[in-house]
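The passage that follows is intended for readers who have already worked through the single-chain material. We present the inputs for a multi-component assembly, then the predicted structure in tokenized form, and finally a short commentary. You are encouraged to pause after the input and sketch how you expect the pieces to fit together before reading on.
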Amino acid sequence: MSDARPPRARRPGIRYVFPVAMGKLARIATRLRGGGSAFPGYLTNKLAPTLLPTLAGQFEHGVVFVLGSNGKTTTTHMVSEVLRAHGLTVFTNPTGANLPQGVTSALLADATLTGRVRADVAVLEVDEGYAAELADLLAPSVILSLNVQVDQLYRFYETERVADMMLEASTRARAHVVINRDDPYLSKADPAAMTAPVSYFGVAAEIIAGSAHGLANAADTRSGDAGAVAHPAFAEVIVVEGRDITVQVDTAAVAVTLPAKGLHYATDAAAALTVAARVLGDGFDAERAARGFAQMAPAYGRGEVIPLRGDRHGEQVEFVMFKNAPSMQMNLDALDRAPERLLLAIDEGTPDVSWLYDVDLDAIDHVDVVTGEKAHQLALRLAYAGIEMGLVEPDMDKAVAYMRSLPDTAAGRQTWFVNYELMMAGRRILGHGDQEVARR
Amino acid sequence: MSDRQDGSPAVRIVQFYPVELGVTGDRGNVRALQTRLERAGIPVEVLRVGRGDPTPADIDVILFGNGPLSAMRVVMDDLQGRRAELATAVEDGAAVLAVGAGAELLSESITLLDGEVLDGLGILPLRVTRTRERRVGYIIAETEHGRLIGFEDHASMWTLDAGAQAYGRVVAGRGSVRDGDGAGESVRVGHLFATNVQGPVLPLNPQLSDELLRIAASRRGYSYQPGTAHSCLDVLATGARQAIEDRVGDEVFTFMKV
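Having made your guess, compare it with the prediction:
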């Protein structure tokens, strides 16, 4: 796909009926088998290579890409809700379906048989590794780069490569490039290399200084200047009080309530407001934006609260998902106090867990159960931190049974820190299905 | 630190370039050595040395961690300026653990994919060649001190000078050292250890930690022995090692081929 010229957009029409129908059928078939699949997207792309650009070209307010090491799902959610609160119909890809075939599969579900889309704007989270390739197909108007954090070294090798991938994709944005000015690598992007003007977002310096580990962005080990370079921000987080924050967006102060606590979520909100303001132009309205945040449910497993024993009025479980050292650190830093009851879980979905030793665990004082296939590696790290553990039990089902056997907490809520796979497993054990969930 | 109170000397551990060479849990290696000495009742002092900081005297353990190629380039000049002091410390018998990029910096040379050759410090008897293929996954190697177990994630092959030998013979995983017909992993030259094993390597491999600590402690007149205070750590390490041994052979990292 990358060496040939990308296929160009054409007009919707009868030529797309067969490929779209086949794709939709494949989608139904793979769903009956259980779970989502990349196959429908693959099939349709083969049958009609011009379909994807044809669909993308029809969104009146364009296509938005959300890139970043951490926070893509949450921010995509935020942008979508703020735009909806302004009356737009938004197309977005389901949680985690951020590879090319996943994006195609999602678009297929929304398209008519003749290859027409119904939404006004598309907001897509896109995997950094495929961002430039997808940008050639979908011609995004806005590309947002949230952050560059140490993530999946076994896949990306070197963190600065991730920055380069995001910035290379950003050169393809038609209308706006949106960049985190507090990120050491991203803040050094060359505006002259971009087709579109750059808008920066950020967090007020004194708020970052008051955070135990700042924003946890990767230090720049390449240029000799480890930190970020200063830029005026179009949108800046100026007040953080728990979940209530204020973001100065150009001339308007926007007060919003975050779906979950944490400076990383506040940063995501500033990014989302920048994107929304750029997409909407004069149509952007601070009150509507705040309403968008108010309507937002927590994204799957990110601050989501589910009953421990199926009783809505009984003990609850708050899920906190982490992917890597920075996301675990930011979530730990967001805790008000050490959790009363805590489950920690990692399985082989996180191949290398060396980074556990780069996380400062001062925010917790004990763990009730350590679970997942890597329970012993995790427990070893906790033991070296001097943190007490109740139980080391690699089997998640048994670990949950143990958590259910404990007396209720004073706060009425347990806390489960989990990687993606065990977040899904934990939800399932608590009786919440793990079907691919579209965001409306 | 603790030597100031009762006059008994502390074992001095020095981690070099923790900011640039510290992306794979390298703090965990420092932590393992520090905690194990403390639990053996031996005073310990940990120093971290960044670019521009002076090289401490009388080092007992030298640690170099892992990082990207850009970080190697950034610290290279500073490191070359410490060549004489480091060589002296090594001659004096300091124990050395160098992981990944840290090991490459101490090698004779590093040949990059485009043919560029970087000079290393020449403390380790090996030459590094960066490879297109990346080797990722659990690794197990048999060594003179028992099984070396951890996670490998690198794109380097190490060619040893005549007379030098691989520390471990790979029984699962890929390894990074050419060793006759088989695959080798890590290099030991006296009290110098260089490895591409992460995890980090020392918490997962108490036998290697203890080997380094015996060398370091004896320099200060202590006889280091792990005891009951170490057993709760080592029970968990055994569990982690067993889980990895049970796991190898499964094809876990299929998406590397994407």
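Commentary: Chain B is about 30% helix and 35% strand. The first strand of chain B starts at residue 11 and ends at 16. How closely did your sketch match?
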